[in-house]
Amino acid sequence: MGATPAINGSADLRDAAWGVGGKEYCSSNILPLKCIAADWSRVSQSQNVALKLQFSHRRSLFHALARGVLDSVLILSAHSTVPTNDQILVPETLLKKRKSQEKVRAERTAAIEKKKASNKEKRGVIFKRAEKYVKEYRDAEREKIRLHRAAKKDDSAYVPAEAKLMFVVRIKGINKIAPKPRKILQLLRLLQINNGVFIKVTKAITEMLKIVEPWIAYGYPNLKSIKELIYKRGYGKINKQRIALTDNAIIEENLGKYGIVCIEDLVHEIYSVGPNFKQVSNFLWPFKLSNPTGGFRARKFKHYIEGGDLGNREDAINALIRQMN
């Protein structure tokens, strides 16, 4: 048999299926049923052959393509890796932002470390000063006891030194008050009932207190009373505002130029009536006290020596401070 012709379409498929003999045999107008069935059988077989050839050809192409893709994947997987951070290109804006953030972070860390070192140094100074003040207070108390014992041993009386500090508290309102006493109370910053202030004892102050005696009670506070007042009810006058003394930084910021950096310095300056007493006293806002526990005496508006609460009560002012604090 000769070579099978190539099949390139429906016409070629029909010619290959029918052949020359088929055409001649089926040239008449009336075709036998067997001839038609035989011819269509040959056509179906030829179509199947053509479809099988096309499918086989496509399958070969698909396998070849798949093998090529697989080889490419294997080659890439053998010669390539995941890119590192150095191989990834980062935008310049992001690099600048990172650099700026690192600079700010470094500056903040340096500032924090500097502040920590400064605070540590300040704490050391404060502790040393506190120890110094405690020793000074104890030595003064022991000296007073020694002098008292020495005087008793010699059958003489011990006369303590005159007080240099007074605490004045207003216990009466503004009803029926003359202009002059009103002005003195304003100078003493005693503008409301139960207001209290520390005052340095001078001749002028003593004369002023005598004028406003019907509205005030005053005396000589001890160290304990001073500490209790400042620690519990201490407020500073900062920019004409009443600010609580909750941190030594507040005191250092306003009184640091006078060498007062902590609340212990402030207490010591008040108690000892130091050279900066005026600045410290003006810095302290007038103390706002409460009504005394149990109330005032029944004869409140009489002098203290007459059974009332007005006037000078000397060391007994400490009991009143504890009742009102």
From TrEMBL:
One of the GO biological process terms: maturation of LSU-rRNA from tricistronic rRNA transcript (SSU-rRNA, 5.8S rRNA, LSU-rRNA)
A GO term, aspect molecular function: RNA binding
Keywords assigned by UniProt, alphabetized: Ribonucleoprotein, Ribosomal protein
Tagged with keyword Cytoplasm: no
Listed GO CC annotations: cytosolic large ribosomal subunit
InterPro entries named in the record: Ribo_uL30_ferredoxin-like_sf, Ribosomal_uL30, Ribosomal_uL30_euk, Ribosomal_uL30_euk_arc, Ribosomal_uL30_ferredoxin-like, Ribosomal_uL30_N_euk
Domain Large ribosomal subunit protein uL30-like ferredoxin-like fold: 167-216
Coiled coil: none
Domain Large ribosomal subunit protein uL30 N-terminal eukaryotes: 90-161
Family statement drawn from the similarity comment of this UniProt entry: Belongs to the universal ribosomal protein uL30 family.
Full protein name: 60S ribosomal protein L7
Upper classification of the organism: Eukaryota, Fungi, Dikarya, Ascomycota, Pezizomycotina
